[in-house]
Amino acid sequence: MRMVFEPAPEAERASLYRRFEEEIAEPRRMDHLFAESSERKRVAIMVSREDHCLSDLLWRWRSGELGAEVVGVISNHPDHGDQVTSLGLPFHHVPVEPGSKGKAEARLLELL
Questions:
Q1: Burial of 65 per CB tally in 10 Å (0-12, 13-18, 19+)
Q2: Residue 1 has pLDDT above 90, yes or no
Q3: How far apart are CA 86 and CA 109, in angstroms?
Q4: In this predicted structure, what is the pLDDT of residue 39?
Q5: What is the 3-state secondary structure (H, E, C) of 32-77?
Q6: Secondary structure class of 93 (helix, strand, coil)
Q7: What is d(CA 63, CA 109) in angstroms, rounded to the nearest whole number?
Q8: Is 73 buried (19+), middle (13-18) or exposed (0-12) by CB count in 10 A?
Q9: Which residue has the higher pLDDT, 37 or 89?
């Protein structure tokens, strides 16, 4: 589950996080993570053959609307390499051949 909250004032966060841990997470043996939504995340875009979603994400990234730092694009097809590299982003082609899905997934994890 993912939940988004309005941030608590910075001076109160450590106390709030500690209280959450003690009163909620520990008694329920809950794994959790607090991440500040104001911090830009590093993301890799994974794309297949169609480019409409990739083009939209790249446009939003270039205009500052995406709210993330795109560090590269990974695709199982080479089709979009020129579009991506023309923007100064790394493009990685990871082909998935019949019977080699495990090898391709291992390569994806290396890149990420």
A1: exposed
A2: no
A3: 25
A4: 78
A5: CCCCCCCCCEEEEEEECCCCHHHHHHHHHHHHCCCCEEEEEEEECC
A6: strand
A7: 29
A8: buried
A9: 89
